[in-house]
Design goal:
14 helices, globular, D-Maltodextrin-Binding Protein, domain 2, 495 residues, 11-stranded mixed beta sheet, 4-stranded antiparallel beta sheet, 23 strands, Dipeptide-binding Protein, domain 1, alpha+beta
């Protein structure tokens, strides 16, 4: 990365065009990457995952793990204050984790820390966490933004409901949020680490892909996320623009509601996997910007193992449908969100066209992201969806995060994120064993067995892993496109 000029001579106010808005101001209640991306600039976790997949210090300067992975000791940085002036210390960390672990507080990401039995303040800058059984994934999980440390004063005033504004230790501070329009953050001049050069960062909500590109080309915004693939050659040829890319740990899938007909039947789920030409979607819809999934988590994740994929086979799909009692297919609905994933509307249109070839008529019902996500994460008797589109980024780098809350039967909404309402006792046992085993090689074996079973059971239509494409004005420097789907502006500047 090029080094910034010591004193930029142009106004340091950056505007980023995002496809969706933040859903909350509370990092403990957040559910999605766009929200976590914004809050990550203001609220910091104890540890951090680098773009290369390395776990490094953040608010904790070092950590130790017992040989049996049941005791975790964290040494905290000194001399840090929250944005409201409250000191950052071990007691502040304990307050955050007391909230995360409180069963009376409706936090969906509790699974990240649920095995913790005690959090003890050893001294002002030392915290000790203990688990009843080995929990090797905890160190990775402490990099997750959902475990971000918020001001204890702020949390105590809003314990069981979302805080009105984020009060963290980060390099930027909350300034303004106009839901559905923009989010504005201002530089924290008292930041403990490297001081930002940007004075202000605004996240503009522009759901339409083409409109984001136009805003970038005209200079209305200086950064735009999820650039459509067929615009990329033109943007790269423009000397005023730069296109950044990064392979993502996000897996895109269509989930089946296993409680609704006909998706209780594994043969129907398998048939749909055979009916959809995933290679063609990556090539023609994504413009080659993606990778067909060969497992429920992406390469580079601890526990990933390639599993034999469902090849495109219309005849096999028809045979399975006939065997399941649907020789002429059936009608169903497909619920995607607009502007959330790379070419999401076009991907769903291609899927529906393929399904029609085997007699399945899928009515596509697009929804706005802020309405969509809560609607598919309702309790089982309240949901309407039959097929839904989601992407899951394994942002901790460990398959525990990529599998446990999505497939374990104890993680059905509203508790967790298993929006397929899928249940398999054997899989539950494998996932429980993998998260309570200290030996890395044994964990890998358990995850491979789990991935094989998931592939066989097909609770999802496995689609692809994304490659992030982000456009910037040429005078914007220092933007980081992280594999966890975060666009990071903490060290950016404008020439």
């Amino acid at each position: 990365m090029a080094k910034p000029k010591p004193k930029p001579t142009v106004p340091q106010k950056l505007i980023i065009a995002s496809g969706t808005d933040a859903l909350t101001m509370d990092t403990h209640f957040a559910l999605d990457a766009p929200t976590f991306t914004i809050l990550d600039h203001m609220v910091e976790s104890l540890l951090e995952l680098t773009p290369k997949g390395e776990i490094v210090p953040r608010l904790a300067e070092k950590w130790e793990v017992s040989s049996d992975a049941t005791e975790f000791t964290l040494k905290l940085r000194k001399g840090i204050n929250f944005h409201d002036g409250t000191p950052f210390n071990a007691e502040a960390v304990k307050v955050t984790f007391d909230r995360l672990l409180d069963p009376k507080v409706a936090i969906r990401y509790r699974f990240l820390v649920a095995p913790i039995s005690t959090v003890t303040v050893v001294d002002d800058y030392t915290v000790k966490m203990k688990t009843k059984a080995p929990f090797a994934a905890l160190v990775s999980n402490l990099t997750h933004q959902a475990t971000g440390i918020q001001s204890p004063a702020s949390l105590k005033a809003s314990w069981d409901k979302a805080v009105a504004k984020p009060v963290g230790t980060g390099s930027f501070m909350f300034k303004e949020w106009v839901p559905g329009n923009k989010f504005v953050m201002a530089r924290n001049d008292n930041y403990w680490g490297k001081k930002p050069l940007l004075e202000e960062v605004t996240w503009r909500v522009i759901p339409d892909e083409a409109s984001r590109v136009v805003a970038l080309e005209t200079g209305e915004v200086q950064v735009a996320v999820r650039i459509p693939p067929f615009d990329i050659p033109r943007l790269k040829a423009d000397k005023n623009l730069v296109v950044l890319s990064a392979a993502s740990v996000r897996t895109i899938y269509l989930g089946f509601n296993a409680l609704k007909e006909p998706f209780q039947d594994k043969r129907v789920r398998q048939a749909i996997n055979y009916a959809v030409n995933k290679e063609a979607i990556v090539k023609h819809v994504l413009g080659g910007v993606g990778r067909v999934s060969d497992a429920a988590v992406s390469p580079g994740i601890f526990g990933y193992a390639p599993i034999k994929t469902y090849e495109y086979n219309i005849e096999k799909a028809k045979a399975l449908l006939a065997e399941a009692g649907f020789p002429k297919g059936f009608e169903t609905t497909l619920h995607p969100a607009v502007g959330r994933y790379y070419m999401d509307a076009s991907v769903c249109t291609a899927v529906a066209a393929d399904l029609l070839k085997v007699g399945i008529k899928a009515d596509i019902k697009m929804m706005e992201w802020g309405t969509y996500l809560p609607s598919i994460l309702r309790e089982k008797d309240q949901v309407e969806h039959k097929i839904y589109m989601l992407g899951w980024g394994c942002v901790t780098g460990d398959a525990d995060y990529g599998l446990y809350t999505l497939f374990h039967s104890g993680e059905w909404p509203k508790k967790g994120m298993n929006a397929s309402f899928y249940k398999n006792e054997k899989l539950d046992q494998l996932l429980d064993a993998a998260r309570s085993t200290a030996n890395p090689e044994e964990r890998k074996k358990l995850y491979k067995e789990a991935l094989t079973l998931i592939n066989e059971e097909a609770p999802w239509l496995f689609l692809h892993s994304e490659v992030q494409m982000v456009g910037t004005r040429a005078n914007v420097k220092g933007i980081i496109v992280h594999p966890t789907e975060r666009v990071i502006a903490k060290e950016a500047w404008i020439e």
